[in-house]
Amino acid sequence: MSAPPQGAAEDRPLTLRRMTAADVPAVLALEHQLFPSDPWPEAFFYDELAQASPTLPVERATRKYWVAEQQDRIIAYAGMMCVLPLADVQTLAVAAEAQGQGLGGELLGLIEAESRTWGAEDLLLEVRADNPGAQRLYLRNGFEQIHLRRTYYADGGDALIMRKRLAERPAPLGPVGGTS
Ligand SMILES: CC(C)(COP(=O)(O)OP(=O)(O)OC[C@H]1O[C@@H](n2cnc3c(N)ncnc32)[C@H](O)[C@@H]1OP(=O)(O)O)[C@@H](O)C(=O)NCCC(=O)NCCS
């Protein structure tokens, strides 16, 4: 009997769930493919997860990490940090064969929603200046560039700092003893 026909990759069910320490080897393999010039070291992922719920009680957690799985294979991951009033996109990555189908945007939306739930006023991120694809994703989702950090990466690459405001700030007060 022949195997059932396989649908297009985007038709296969996708599971989004919290990242655990057991996921780190698979995540690290993707990390090396997707960030070949500056992958996070393995210990960094374990350190991040140690600061995430459910490892820590939710009131002490400052991180949250997710993976997207398709047919028991991790095809994307994302992580955030929140130390009020700021939240940060710590990482966002989608396997090459799964890119361009909206998954990156979905994970970014998840980070934004979680940042709002935690009460963050701004969501910040760093992106390589030579990564226009990721920058397009962020611009399309309401981020703006606020700084350029020169030679930020180990290979000498520059970083753009981007921000999305999540909360309106009160208008600044006028000068004390104004003219009126
Ligand atoms: C950057 C990255 C996370 C984007 O992930 P992604 O899943 O490809 O993102 P999306 O699919 O949401 O959007 C990417 C493109 O696909 C298009 N797209 C989105 N949904 C789509 C769909 N259903 N069908 C077809 N195209 C779609 C978008 O319009 C977008 O096009 P653009 O490049 O012209 O802006 C991914 O490319 C990646 O992991 N890159 C390597 C690591 C990296 O650079 N991470 C970011 C670090 S700051």
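The radius of gyration is 19 Å.
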